[in-house]
Amino acid sequence: MTQTVALTGNTAVALAMQQIEPDVVAAYPITPSTEIMQSFATYIANGEVDSELVLAESEHSALSACVGAAAAGGRVMTATSSQGLALMWEVLYIAAGLRLPIVISVANRALSAPLNIHGDHSDMMGARDSGCIQLYAETAQEAYDNTLQAVRIAEHPEVRLPVLSGMDGFIISHSIERMVVEDREAVRGFVGPYVPHHPLLDLAHPVSYGPLALPDTYMEHRRQLVEAMRRAERVIEAVGTEFGARFGRTYGLTEAYRLEDAEFGLIALSSAAGTCRVAADELRARGMRVGVLRPRVLRPFPHARLRDALGHLRAIAVLDRADSPGGFGAPVFTEVRSALYGLPSPPLVIGRVFGLGGRDLLVEHVTEVAEALEKALETGEPPEPVDYLAVRE
Amino acid sequence: MVNPEPLGWRRIPEGALILEPGNAVQYLTGGWRTFRPVLDRERCTDCLICWIFCPDSAIQVKGGRLLGFDLEHCKGCGICAAVCPPSARAIAMVEESAFQDRAEP
Ligand code: SF4
Ligand code: SF4
Predict the structure, then answer these.
(1) Among A110, A60, A55, which residue's Cα sits nearest to residue A84?
(2) pLDDT of A271-324, one tens digit each?
(3) For residue A227, which residues of chain B lie inside 8 Å, CB to CB?
(4) pLDDT tens across B40-94, in order?
(5) What are the DSSP calls for A162-186, one per residue?
(6) Which of A191, A189, A173 is closest to A103 using CA atoms?
(7) Nearest ligand by distance to the CA of B76
(8) Is B30 near ligand 2, meaning CB less than 6 Å away?
């Protein structure tokens, strides 16, 4: 039965995993995602799920165990954060290259040093070229919904790639939110049975995983992976639509807010989008036409969708909760600006890094940026293309 | 010694999986060789230690008797010559350039 409950992002994801009941879960605890595995382990201890839980000695081993289990033919999930995802690094590329549909739930957190356990996107941003699909949830509800959809996306025959399903560490992972959880049988019906592709344990059809690909074949394999990533765009939309038809919450590649008649745009991933929407409402009350676009998916990057949604704007501020030290702007900024570059009269695009290590993004920070855009258009003097929000000099 | 035209990205097996057991035989590696094993049949005792150790299954044996080397796959590592017992020393590694039919790189 569909129920309205109060859950943290972490326990919502753990409940999604309980409902999915993957064959194998291998994990190692790390703040702020620890609670996911802790709750899931409790489900196992209580006999509510029959998954094989592998308690690994590190995240590298955890994802390696996931790779083995997925190649063997199992439906496989894990969860991690920050340094844990960093320690999974080389195995992320292997999981993607072997086209194993592992779902990795990430409570996004800053990377050391200095040591910080709070939410930013540095962990998943560093993995954006690993070949894993990347979803960023705004709320605990979406973290739950994305976990269910991630299984379908990852396992889709046109895709078969790992999915990193992120939510903001602490801001979402530890905040209790009023949300809807679906009936377990309905979830099972949506997720469906797993049909593995060339499982190692199919002894009647022996296959080898992980052979050497020399310069004469490596590039074809990488090119093929890119194609799977491109097809994932359609699959993510189709799965999001089907999810909406079943459960009443439809998801796409991006989520737009008051953009149609807007002159100015604010772009942010995850929970910061809510702050941007409040800021947009306040600015509209003062007569400034502001809209918000929240990319829900960063890999594959929905560049065509962004061009359609943003092309009519005069100026855009992209807010990144991660940085690229020494780069010309942070990851989402560079991608958005690049996507808009070919337009006949592209909007002015500026990038602002905010909220590193869990620093709060306030509505006034966002309104400040929007007003800087407005002033730039009035005076004709462009603002700093790339800068920081709320950092002390 | 030329390999068949490799597949393009649209048809190459997903995840670089090997779907056909034993297909390594189709991939010719003889061209990697800089030294070629040469057998002195007179000295060979057919102990087949070389056959056990060859990493490329390139030692050809029939009815317990060593016949020679599969030069389409032998990479010239020299393991066979090294493991051949001192009492026999039946394999010499000879530089590939000394042969008329030398493997193309
Ligand atoms: S190891 Fe030497 S003696 Fe033994 S079979 Fe091989 S070549 Fe002959
Ligand atoms: S040189 Fe190496 S590959 Fe060639 S036959 Fe001897 S052991 Fe096998």
Answers:
(1) A60
(2) 999 999 999 999 999 999 999 999 999 999 999 999 999 999 999 999 999 999
(3) 9-10
(4) 999 999 999 999 999 999 999 999 999 999 999 999 999 999 999 999 999 999 9
(5) -EEEEEETTTTTSSEEEEEE--HHH
(6) A191
(7) 2
(8) no
Query: Chain A residues with CB inside 8 Å of B18's CB?
Result: 207-208, 211
A358 φ, ψ to 5°? 90, 5
Residue A140 is predicted with a pLDDT of 98
A254-388 CATH choice from 3.40.50.920, 3.30.565.10, 3.40.718.10, 3.30.70.260: 3.40.50.920
Answer whether A220 sits within 8 Å of B17, measured CB to CB: no
Establish whether domains A3-247 and A254-388 are of one fold.
yes
Residue A336 region, left (φ>0) first, then alpha (ψ -120 to 50), else beta?
A: alpha
Q: How many CB pairs under 8 A join A and B?
A: 52
pTM above 0.90, yes or no: yes
Is residue A123 predicted with pLDDT exceeding 70? yes
- Alpha carbon of B69 to ligand 1 centroid (Å): 12
Angle between helices A184-191 and A140-155 (to 10 degrees): 40
Q: What is the ipTM of this complex?
A: 0.87
Tell me how close the Cα of A351 comes to any Cα of chain B, in angstroms.
36
Q: What number of other Cβ atoms are within 10 A of residue A240's Cβ? A: 22
Q: Give per-residue burial for B23-48: e unless 16+ CB within 10 Å, then b.
A: eeeeebbbeebebbbebeeeebeeee
> Is the separation of the CB atoms in A12 and A140 below 8 Å?
yes
Please work out whether the CB of residue B90 comes within 6 Å of at least one atom of ligand 1.
yes
Residue of A nearest to B24 (CA): A211
pLDDT score for B23: 87
In contact, A130 and A93? CB cutoff 8 Å: yes
Architecture of the domain whose range is A3-247: 3-Layer(aba) Sandwich (3.40)
